[in-house]
Structures are given as C-alpha cells and as structure tokens.
Amino acid sequence: xxxxxxxxxxxxxxxxxxxxxxxxxxxxxxxxxxxxxxxxxxxxxxxxxxxxxxxxxxxxxxxxxxxxxxxxxxxxxxxxxxxxxxxxxxxxxxxxxxxxxxxxxxxxxxxxxxxxxxxxxxxxxxxxxxxxxxxxxxxxxxxxxxxxxxxxxxxxxxxxxxxxxxxxxxxxxxxxxxxxxxxxxxxxxxxxxxxxxxxxxxxxxxxxxxxxxxxxxxxxxxxxxxxxxxxxxxxxxxxxxxxxxxxxxxxxxxxxxx
Length: 258
Ligand SMILES: Nc1ncnc2c1ncn2[C@@H]1O[C@H](COP(=O)(O)OP(=O)(O)O)[C@@H](O)[C@H]1O
Ligand SMILES: [Mg+2]
Hints:
The protein is of the alpha/beta class. The protein has two domains: 4-77 and 153-257, 3-Layer(aba) Sandwich (Rossmann fold), CATH 3.40.50.300; 84-152, no CATH class. 36% of the residues lie in helices and 24% in strands. It has seven helices and ten strands. Strands 6-7-8-3-9-10 form a six-stranded mixed beta sheet, with helices on both faces. Strands 2-1-4-5 form a four-stranded antiparallel beta sheet, with helices on one face. Helix 3 (108-121) packs across helix 4. It is globular and about 45 Å long. Adenosine-5'-diphosphate (ADP) is lined by residues 15, 22, 40, 42-48.
C-alpha cells in the first residue's frame, strides 16, 4: 500500500515440509511512526509472524516489504527486542548498549555520543559501569531498549517485552516506552497476550486467532496518549476486545469437538 513503511503481504508459514499451517495468508500494512500490537493467545503464531517480519524465519508464501523492498534477512533497519533482554552478562551497561553499533562502522566519537544519549534517555547514566546482574529486571529491560534505539532502526519488533516483569515495573516501563516512542516517533510492532498492554500502547491492534494463525480482527484505537486505564473509553475498548476473545474461544471449542 502506498505510504506504508511495512507491508505484510499474504504471509503463510509451516515449520518443516509437512507441518501444520502456523500462519495463513496474513496481510496488513503499517505506517511510519505507528505502534501496532499483535494480540493473541499463546501458540497462535505471534512470535512466528514477528520472526518472519524481522527476516529471522523464512515464509512459505507471501512477503514482507520494508519501504517497498522485501525483507529476506535480519537487518539493522528492523531490530528485535529480545524477550529475555539478550544482554551479555560480562559486559557493562554501556558496553551492552554499544553492542549494536560495533559493526555499524560509525566514527568512535559518534558512537560514544549515541550511547551516552540513549543511556540518558532511559535514565541509566549513573549505572553505565554496572553489570547486568547488578540491575533489576526493569533496568535490564531499559538497557535492551537503549541498545535497540541506539541502532536508530526504522522499525522495532518487540516480543512480549514486559512479560517477565511484575505489574508495577511493567506499567512503569510501558509508560516510559510510550513517552520515548512519542518523542522519537519510532515504528513499533509489539507482540503480546496482554489486552491492557495492547490497549495502553497501540494505535491499532490486530487480534490473531489460532490454528492456523490468522488476523481475526483489526481495532483502531481513537484514544489520545497517554491513556488512562480507568477511563470509560479505555474500558469500552477492553470489553470490545475481550468479547472477540470469547468468540475465538467458542470457535476453537467447536473445532475441537468435531
Ligand atoms: N521452531 C519451531 N519449530 C516447529 N514448530 C514451531 C516452532 N516455533 C513455533 N512452532 C509452533 O508454531 C505455533 C505458533 O507458535 P508461536 O509463533 O511461538 O506462537 P505464540 O508466539 O503466539 O505463542 C505453535 O504451535 C508452535 O508449537
Ligand atoms: Mg511467542
């Protein structure tokens, strides 16, 4: 589609030659600066879809276009924020943030300035020399976010980035991510099974259904950010999405009974 930064175009995927269909004809477009959530239950194919978008998995059919060009392998234009942070335990916070820049061929001073800038953005300047093991889970997550941002990618892919954190840290980091996104206008594709997380962060939510993984419904959220989780509009969308899940649940049960 004209004006899209990312186009997911008829993507189908099986693992192995005779495996079940994990993704069936998934198509949607994402504009620059949008935050998109792919919401669905465990096993519906969310990570597989994200890996296809990032060029980590080959697909059987279809293609993913970034700025009109097919993505066929991982690139720095579209980086994945790992579920388990992917930090190197022997490297300091600063050296972890530097990691993605080492192969980028940036002049040393520019690389250092960038690292300093993004460490400051995520509030970790005074922990630059700490090791990951000396940080809380929330702080480790912020190191991972700084590292992804320092590469200055066009698209950031996030696979349940807050899944392992307690509720308070999760809310805090969701808020932080939202503020950074509003400032930097990055494009984010977020995979989650958390309805509230999708509602809090996204401009659009794609609800996936399983077996085979398909986009069941698209919901556009016409709510200003930052959002208030107790607001009646927020509740309205929560109910709407919750009802969609009851529907997919019923369908799954019927299929199971046959
Ligand atoms: N590397 C793999 N090899 C074979 N099957 C896989 C592999 N990764 C995922 N699957 C299967 O694909 C389906 C979708 O998995 P996944 O994309 O991880 O779902 P989600 O992220 O929504 O939990 C599941 O049935 C899972 O068992
Ligand atoms: Mg997953």
